[in-house]
Amino acid sequence: MRKLTLIIMVLIGVISCVDNKLKNERALFIQKLEAFNFLSKYHHQLHIMIGEDEGDGNQALKQFRQGIISINNFELIPIKKALNKIDYYSGPESENVLKLDYLVDYYQSGLSMQIEAMLRGYGYLNVVPMDSALILYDRVSN
C-alpha cells in the first residue's frame, strides 16, 4: 500500500511538472510573439525618425513611446532602455535614434528566429506565419 501511494504521488508530481513546464514555455512564447508583433507594428515610426520614410519625426517618436508604454513585456526591456536615451527628436542623424533602429532591426530578427526555433523544436519545419504562430504553437506542443 505504501509503494502504491508513493507511485501515485510521484506520478502526480511528474504530470504537474510537465504541465507547468508547458504553461511556462507557452508564456515565454507569447512574450516573444507579442514583442515581435509590437516591433513589426511600430517599425515604420523608426523609419520616419531616421529619415527613410516620409513623416513627422516628432510624431513618430511620440507614437513609438505611447505604444511601448502600453505594453508590459519583459522582451522589450532593451528597447525601452534605448528609447529612454532619446529625450526629444533632434533629427534623423541623431545617434540615439540610429542606435534604437539598429537595436530594433536585430532584435526583431532575433525574436523571429527564436519563435521559429521553438516551433522547430516540436517538428514544425515550415516558414512561420506570425499571425498564426500561437495557433501553430498550441497545435504542435500538445
Q: Layout of SSEs?
A:
Layout: H1 2-49, H2 57-69, H3 77-83, H4 95-120, H5 133-141
Helix pairs in contact: 1-2, 1-4, 1-5, 3-4
Kindly summarize this structure in a few lines:
By secondary structure, this protein is an all-alpha fold.
Structural class: mainly alpha
Q: Oligomeric state of the chains?
A: single chain
Number of helix segments? 5
- Rough outline: elongated
Strand portion? under 5%
The ordered string of helix (H) and strand (E) elements is HHHHH
Number of domains: 1
Q: Could you tell me the radius of gyration in angstroms?
A: 21 Å
Number of strands: 0
Q: Point out poorly predicted stretches.
A: none
Give the overall average pLDDT. Answer: 89
What kind of sheet is the major sheet? none
Roughly how many Å apart are the termini? 33 Å
Binned, the helix content reads over 70%
Structure, explained:
- With 142 residues, the protein is an all-alpha fold.
- It has one domain.
- It is 73% helix and 0% strand.
- The chain is built from five helices and no strands.
- The protein has helices at 2-49, 57-69, 77-83, 95-120, 133-141.
- Helix 1 (2-49) packs antiparallel against helix 2.
- The longest helix is centred in the first third of the chain and has 48 residues, at 2-49.
- It starts with a helix and ends with a helix.
- The model has no long low-confidence stretch (mean pLDDT 89).
